[in-house]
Amino acid sequence: MLFGKTVTKTNWALTCLIVAMIIKLDEFTLNNACTILAERDAALASVLERYGFPPLWARAPGFSTLVHIILEQQVSLASANAAFARLCAYSEGPLTPAGLLQYSDEMLQAAGLSRQKMRYVRHLSEAIVDARFHLDELETLPDEEVRRRMTQLKGIGNWTADIYLSECLLRPDILPQGDIAMQEAFRVLKNLPERPDHERFVLGTAHWRPWRSAGTRILWHYYLSARR
User: Fold this and answer.
1) How far apart are CA 212 and CA 188, in angstroms?
2) Per-residue pLDDT at 4
3) Which of 12, 87, 136, 151 is deepest in the core (most CB within 10 A)?
4) Is the pTM of this model over 0.85?
């Protein structure tokens, strides 16, 4: 059973694959997945007991959101949100690839983009306009193929692809690689001497499968709630 409490070793891999292929996170699935994880992991259970279920943190898939995620790379969310708002203010309608390509360097710099991120968002825009990259096709592709296609683009690494998979495509079994908030929350909850690298983090969360996207949301929920 996809929501069963126990899964035999013989069908474990198949169950994870089925969940990843046919289930999208929504409020119902997320809360059920969190309940399952609380039974498997005492640290996650303690977060749910203290702070309740985490938000879904869903974003609309598409160009505008992907640009926003690129702006979030290695900066605070507040800074990224401010830059994104200024970028959107240049357009009367939705942010589009063709529209962004019309913005000058001065306009992008005034919005708060570094030269590096200017190259990234322009490269993404050009790839879409030239039909070399099709965002709308990602919805039907397996996680690894989505990640492969996205990371072929300049400035899109595993973290950006994983956030898009988890929050835009709402895939159920994603661990965003290199997410510092997630790793720090895991370190504190598990009483580790240092943040785990991604390989150790994958090993330490294997028992969360096939609901690692729910586990990461619990970690983010803890990180944000504990700081208030």
Assistant:
1) 18
2) 47
3) 87
4) yes
